[in-house]
Amino acid sequence: MKTLRKIVRIDEEKCDGCGLCAPACAEGAIQVIDGKARLVSEVYCDGLGACLGECPQGAITIEEREAEEFDSLAVEGRLKSLSRADKQRVAGDEKEEFKGCPGALARMFEPSAQETASGAGEHTPASLSALGNWPVQINLVPVKAPCFKKKELLISADCVPFAFGDFHRRFLAGKTLLVGCPKLDDAEFYLNKLTRIFEQNEVVSVEVLFMEVPCCFGMANLVQLALERTGKSIPATFTKVSIKGEVLERREAI
Which one of 3, 39, 84, 103 is separated from 239 by 20 to 30 angstroms, measured CA to CA? Predict the structure, then answer.
């Protein structure tokens, strides 16, 4: 039954899909879907506005209107459902990758004391991390996020950082990172998601790192196909790495 009460309103024009609001909602009423924060159901929202202060774009407000009554029992069931859902992803499910898990919360940060691309040099301490975004898994990162805006994108097969000892200084510094495995994960999902990332963001350039083993070339192929689908002229570099950590081949494509 609907009643006049206070409830969350999300302005999709302002929302950039960063996902900061979702973990701030203790009831699990907000979820990132198709790159935008959305109210999953009126019955989950208590209208208290704990999520308001978490939105950097000011996309969330509280309005008073007719809405379904808040249902604490429904919320309890919702939270139990989320505790299972955040450990899995159903291929083709329209629900976006966030699913309420704090480990998938989109963040950007300045690598403290780490080098950027312009500052990285031969004497950069190997122990410093150059990571500037989170999450890094293709499965988890939002389609549209601040970390993609006018940034160089590094897409790496997830074995590369283990094989290439100087990964952070040589490849990662100053770039937004995405990692995945084209053999063990859903390649079609990767293709669709990468296409949407390229379409919906201002990516400056892309570098793809993949291992010399044949199955790993799938990562380079997926990125190439995604770029072709968008029709955008995004400069791309493809780098093959040996299992002993050597660069075997680098080729550029537009």
Answer: 103
Q: Residues 57-100: pLDDT tens digits?
A: 889 999 999 999 999 889 888 887 775 544 333 222 333 444 44
**CA separation, residue 236 to residues 34, 115, 174, 222, 243 (Å):** 25, 23, 16, 13, 23
- From CA 130, how far away is CA 141, in angstroms rounded? 18
Two tokens at 89? 């992803």
DSSP letters along 3-64, please? EEEEEEEE-TTT-----THHHH-TT--EEEETTEEEE--GGG--S--TTGGG-TT--EEEEE
Asked if 7 and 95 sit in the same domain, the reply is yes
- 161 and 116 share one domain: yes
Indicate which CATH number applies to the domain containing 8.
3.30.70.20
Q: Of 102, 119, 139, which residue sits at a domain end?
A: 102
Contact 128, 114 (CB under 8 A): yes
Q: Are residues 97 and 113 in the same domain?
A: no
Where among 102, 135, 168 does a domain terminate?
102
pLDDT, one tens digit per residue, over 118-171 is 444 444 455 678 999 988 999 888 888 888 989 999 999 999 999 999 999 999
